[in-house]
Amino acid sequence: MELILWRHAEAEDGFPDDARKLTPKGEMQAEKMAAWLRGRLPENARIIASPTKRTRQTAEALASDYSVVKRIGPGASVEDVLNSAGWPGEGEAVVVVGHQPNIGEVCAALLSRNLTGGLVVKKGSVWWFSNGKGPALLKAVMTPALL
After folding, report:
1. Which of 82, 89, 96, 103 would suit a FRET pair with 75, their CA atoms being 20 to 30 Å apart?
2. What is the residue range of 66's domain?
3. Following DSSP, what letter does each residue of 3-29 receive, concatenated?
4. CA nearest to 127, candidates 115, 116, 117, 142
5. Model confidence over 62-72: pLDDT tens digits?
6. Structural domain count, the chain
């Protein structure tokens, strides 16, 4: 299984939190990362996004065919994210568009059972894991600034 964790791109400040939109910079970040992903994702990749406006806009940069999953919204647990993605399934690629600190906590959990807390995942960045025939393997980390 391929698990691609994508933190939403830069968003406006404001309230209510779930209605915050991407900034113009965030829209560019999402488009650049989507272009990078398009050239690498398997054709049948499944995309799931948190229900917030900014995560849906980030996912839409990649594809119009994605699912909104309430369980991966702000405050989601590592288990919520991994279960929603179907990790550690076999043969499937899933892109999860979510939030910090959730994405960083999932990255930390996949990298080491001994890590506590989470890792810093920059806005618009992708962390790509594969489970192969053993523990999670970190295949790539990409930030919009590197594209």
Report:
1. 89
2. 2-146
3. EEEEE---B---SSGGGPPBPHHHHHH
4. 142
5. 999 999 999 99
6. 1
Residue 48's beta-bridge partner residues?
67, 96
**C-alpha span between 49 and 40 (Å, rounded):** 19
Distance CA 4, CA 96 (A): 6
- How does pLDDT run across 16-52, given as a tens digit for each residue? 999 999 999 999 999 999 999 999 999 899 999 999 9
pTM of the predicted model as reported, rounded to 2 decimal places: 0.93
Token duo for residue 30: 């999402």
Per-residue tokens: 76: 């989601």
Question: Both tokens of residue 2?
Answer: 């391929």
Which residue is it, tokens 């405050």? Answer: 75
Whose tokens are 């113009």? That residue is: 24
Residue 2, helix vs strand vs coil? strand
Backbone angles phi, psi at 77, to 5 degrees: -90, 165
**CATH code for the domain of 30:** 3.40.50.1240
- The strand pairing partners of 26, in sequence order, are none
User: Cα–Cα distance between 40 and 60 in angstroms, integer?
Assistant: 17
SS3 19: helix
- Give phi and psi for 5, each to the nearest 5: -100, 120
Return the sign of the alpha-carbon dihedral for residues 117, 120, 123, 125.
negative
